[in-house]
Specification:
The protein is mainly α. The chain has one domain. The chain contains 5 helices and no strands. It is globular.
Length: 118
């Protein structure tokens, strides 16, 4: 299954990562926890980008685990006001990574809406 379909499926049906304490209601997290969640999202995102750009491919199991963590963290950060505020506090390379992530998400969604059956 292509990455975009896996991410869409995770978005629709959940990733299972909620059992690990990811996802769910995070509206009451403190600013320190929010920063930690944003940092974890950046770390996982950088791992995915590194795999995408390198010739060395992870095993399917490793890839699935990282994708599940990524989707759960992304949903948590986007769904939490304190996490969104932590994103706004990012500086330097972290800001570029988050903007890259959000731009890719925006492009993915617009592409998916134009070609939903592909």
């Amino acid at each position: 299954m292509p990455l975009r379909h896996r991410l869409d499926d995770e978005r629709e049906h959940g990733s299972g990562a909620e059992a690990k304490g990811l996802g769910g209601d995070t509206s009451d997290v403190d600013s320190s926890t929010a920063r930690t969640l944003v940092e974890r999202l950046l770390t996982v995102y950088r791992t995915l980008r590194r795999w995408q750009l390198s010739r060395a491919r992870p095993s399917d199991e490793d890839n699935d685990e990282v994708l599940k963590d990524f989707v759960a963290l992304y949903q948590t950060v986007i769904g939490s006001r304190p996490c969104r505020h932590a994103v706004l506090d990012l500086q330097g390379e972290d800001t570029i990574s988050i903007l890259d992530l959000l731009l890719r998400e925006c492009l993915f969604l617009s592409d998916y809406e134009e070609h939903p059956t592909e």
